[in-house]
Structure formats: structure tokens, C-alpha cells
């Protein structure tokens, strides 16, 4: 079985905090450059609090965060739908992969799975991927899934305390068969 066919996503569970913490600590030098929360100050307690909030958010349908794992259950990273705008049937789609699993297509496959899940299980018709213009790995993921590049958003993201331009990509429900 190839690695990508063994990639799965599942909603966070209360017991995922330690795996999240370990993956984040491992990834400080990679995704830490792009994720505001992935810093040396990220604690087990912060991981537990975040996981607990995501379990509740999933139940209330205010956000849908998922663990990316392999067939053995190893925590590979996370992906999710947040900043849900029900009135316009759109949400932000985000992803990250732990340092030891990057470069193998994990984020691309998880993004495909998440987009399909979103369009089958919610009323969303538009998913937006907002990527810092210098985050080459995440830009490749958006391109590899066939998301449409729509433009540059000036000073859209605050990363490590600095405002940075971002690239906006979208996936529409009508595109899902293409990804």
C-alpha cells in the first residue's frame, strides 16, 4: 500500500493533545515559521485546551478541525475548516504537517479529503486557502490540489509579529470532482 492511500483525517478527540504537542515541538523549525501558535512556548496545557475547544466547536458545527493520520494512527499533522461564514457558504481551509512527514504529499492528500468532506457534510460552496506569499510548501499544496489562485491579499497575515502579503486560493463545490 502506498503512503498516500493510508492517509486519513478524523475529528480531534480529547486524547489527541499529547500527539499534537509532540508534533508541534518537532516542527518548530518548519511550520513554526508560519503558524502563530507553533512556538517554543507552546505547552501541553495549551495543546489540551486547543483540542478541547476543537471537540466542542466540531459538535456545535462552528469549526471542523481534523487530525491527519496514517493507517497505524500516527499523528501526521492537522487540517481544518474555520472562520466559517454561513451567510456566504464559505470557510477557510488550513493544513500543516509535522516536520518528519513533509515532502511526501500528506498535506495535499489531506486537503483533498477535507474538501470532499466539507462539500458532502456541510452547506459550504467555497473553501478559501490563504497562504503567506513566501510559504512555498503550502503554496505547492494549494496548487497541487487544483485550487484556483485568485490574487494577492496585501498585509493579510500576521506572522511572527509582522504583517505579510498572502495568496488567496479557492476551491468551489463544483470543482470537487477535479481535485
What would you call the structural class? alpha+beta
Instruction: Determine the strand fraction and express it as a percent band.
Output: 25-35%
Number of domains: 1
- Radius of gyration in whole Å, from Cα? 15 Å
Low-pLDDT residue spans = none
Mean pLDDT: 90
CATH fold name, please?
Aminopeptidase
Spatial shape: globular
Number of strands: 7
Structure description:
With 179 residues, the protein is an alpha+beta fold. The chain has a single domain (4-178), classed as Aminopeptidase. The chain is built from four helices and seven strands, in the order βααβββαβαββ. It has helices spanning 17-26, 44-60, 106-121, 136-144; strands at 8-11, 64-69, 75-85, 90-97, 126-132, 148-159, 162-172. The protein has a seven-stranded mixed sheet, sandwiched between helices. A hairpin with a 4-residue loop joins strand 3 and strand 4. Helix 1 (17-26) packs across helix 2. It is globular, with a radius of gyration of 15 Å. The chain starts with 7 loop residues before the first strand and ends in a 7-residue tail after the last strand.
Summarize the structure.
This protein has 179 residues and is an alpha+beta fold.
Features:
179 residues; alpha+beta; Aminopeptidase; seven-stranded mixed sheet; 7 strands; 29% helix
Amino acid at each position: 500500500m502506498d503512503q498516500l492511500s493510508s492517509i486519513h483525517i478524523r475529528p480531534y478527540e480529547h486524547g489527541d493533545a499529547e500527539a499534537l504537542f509532540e508534533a508541534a515541538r518537532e516542527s518548530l523549525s518548519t511550520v513554526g515559521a508560519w503558524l502563530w501558535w507553533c512556538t517554543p512556548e507552546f505547552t501541553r496545557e495549551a495543546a489540551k485546551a486547543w483540542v478541547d475547544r476543537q471537540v466542542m466547536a466540531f459538535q456545535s458545527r462552528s469549526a471542523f478541525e481534523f487530525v491527519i493520520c496514517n493507517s497505524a494512527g500516527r499523528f501526521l499533522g492537522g487540517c481544518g475548516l474555520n472562520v466559517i461564514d454561513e451567510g456566504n457558504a464559505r470557510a477557510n481551509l488550513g493544513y500543516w504537517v509535522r516536520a518528519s512527514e513533509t515532502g511526501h504529499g500528506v498535506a495535499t492528500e489531506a486537503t483533498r479529503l477535507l474538501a470532499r468532506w466539507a462539500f458532502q457534510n456541510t452547506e459550504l460552496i467555497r473553501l478559501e486557502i490563504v497562504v503567506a506569499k513566501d510559504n512555498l510548501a503550502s503554496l505547492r499544496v494549494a496548487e497541487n490540489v487544483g485550487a484556483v489562485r485568485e490574487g494577492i491579499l496585501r498585509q493579510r497575515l500576521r506572522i511572527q509579529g509582522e504583517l505579510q502579503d498572502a495568496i488567496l486560493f479557492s476551491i468551489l463545490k463544483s470543482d470537487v470532482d477535479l481535485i
